[in-house]
Amino acid sequence: MSALRTGGCLCGAVRYTVAWPPRDLVVCHCTDCQKQAGSAFSVVGVSAREGLQVRGELKTFSHPGSSGQTIERKFCRNCGSPILTDTPAAREQGILFFKAGTLDQTADLEPTTHFWTRSAQAWFSIPDGVTCLEKQ
Ligand SMILES: [Zn+2]
Ligand SMILES: [Zn+2]
Known about the structure:
Layout: E1 3-8, E2 15-20, E3 24-28, H1 31-37, E4 42-48, E5 52-55, E6 58-64, E7 70-76, E8 82-86, H2 88-93, E9 95-99, E10 113-115, E11 131-132
Parallel strand pairs: 3-10, 10-11
Antiparallel strand pairs: 1-2, 2-5, 3-4, 4-9, 6-7, 7-8, 8-9
The structure holds zinc ion (ZN) (2 copies).
Residues 9-11, 13-14, 76, 78-79, 81 line the site of one zinc ion (ZN).
């Protein structure tokens, strides 16, 4: 018995389904995510690779992450919505990261961990009861 959730980009060219619940749901306050999301942070779902099916064409932007490994950020080539993030370590572990803000249903999301809180924007109050990591 596994449930699925759906999501997609702003223009609708990219759609995906993801096995639900995800392995983890976290918030990343790193400055790279701030730039890419154009926002204060990214809400990131962690899925088994086989649990995520994407339809539509993604464009990839690769850059060196602060951890030293190459980060592949995949987004809709038409509207630019960020959809997936992949890394060599994720491939080894059989996982894939998706931008949970692109899910069709987001009202009930409860991230467990906040990463890179040292670059969190000052106006944002991190909720009680979550794990906070200054870096990764
Ligand atoms: Zn799009
Ligand atoms: Zn980040």
